[in-house]
Amino acid sequence: MSTSMKKVEIYTDNENCRKLADVLEEEKLYWYVEKVRLKDEEEICRITVYAPLHAIEEITARVAETLDMRRIENMVAVSDVEAGIGAPYRITGWRFLSLANSFAKRPRFMLLEDAGERSRISTAQVLLVVLASLVALVGLGTDNSYVVIGAMLLSPILGPIYAFSVLLVLSKPRMAARSLISLATLVCAAVAASFAASAVSTLLGHEPQTTGEILLRTRFGWDSLAVPLLLGMASLLAVSSNVTEALTGVAIAAAIIPPASALGWALATGHLQLGELIAANLGTNLAGLLAGSYLMGMTVMTRHVARRSYRGS
Fold this sequence. Notes:
The protein is an alpha+beta fold. The chain has helices spanning about 15-25, 55-65, 90-105, 110-120, 125-140, 145-150, 160-170, 175-205, 210-215, 225-240, 245-270, 270-310, and strands at about 1-10, 30-35, 45-50, 75-80. The chain contains 12 helices and 4 strands.
C-alpha cells in the first residue's frame, strides 16, 4: 500500500546536475545521483529523492525554479514508495542500502568539496569544544552522568572524522592529513581546557576528586574498540547521506570529549597512572572511529565499483 513517503525522479543534463544537487543539498533528504541513457539519446543525469508527501510541492517548485522544464531532457516523475505489514526488516535493509548508495553515487567533486569544508575548523568550533570539555569536567567531578551527556550535545567534532575517511577513500592523503590535524586540534583544545580548569581549581584548594565517571574512562573491554568502530561506520553514512548528524555527533562526542576532559584532569592533578589509562582509552576510541568510518567508505565504494563493472561486462 502507498505511504506518505514519495519517490521523486528528476532527469536533467549534466550541466544542470550540479546546480540541482546544490539545491537539494539544502533540503536534508535522502537522495542520490546516477547517470542514465534514454533510448539513443546522450547520457543524462537522474537524481532520485525520497521525501515525505508534505515536502513534494516545495521540492518540485525548487526544481522548476532551477531547471527549464520546457526542454525535453528536463523531467520530474513522482511515485509512491511501497511498504506493507510485516516488512520491517526489508524496509530497514532498504534504508541502509539507500544510505550506502547515496554516498557511492554522489559525484566525486561533491564528495571532495564537502569533505574539504568539513576538514577545516573554525574558531567557533574550538570554543564549543572547550565549553563541552568544561561541562564534561563538571559532570566527571560531581559524578553526574546527565551533565556529561549535556557536554556531548555541545561538541562539533564529527566533521574532521568524516572528512578524513572520505578523503582517504578518494586517494587524497594530504587533505586527509589536514583533517587529522583539525581533529587533533579539537582534542587538544578539550584536554587543555580541562587541564587549565583543574589546575586553577586545585590552586584554589578545591582539587577535583576521583569519581566513578572518571574511573569509567579507564576501563577496557571488548566494547572499547567495537563501539567506536560501529559509530565510525554510522557517522560516514549519516553525514554523507544528508541525514541529520545531531544524534551521530552526540555519539561520536561521547567517545572523545569525556575521556579528553578526564585526561586533562589527570594531568593537572598528578594522577599520572590514571592518565595513562585514560589516554589509552581516548586513543583507542579515536582509532576505532577513524577506522570504522574508513572501512565503511571503502566497503561502499568497492561494492559500487564492483556492481558497475558487473553491469558493464
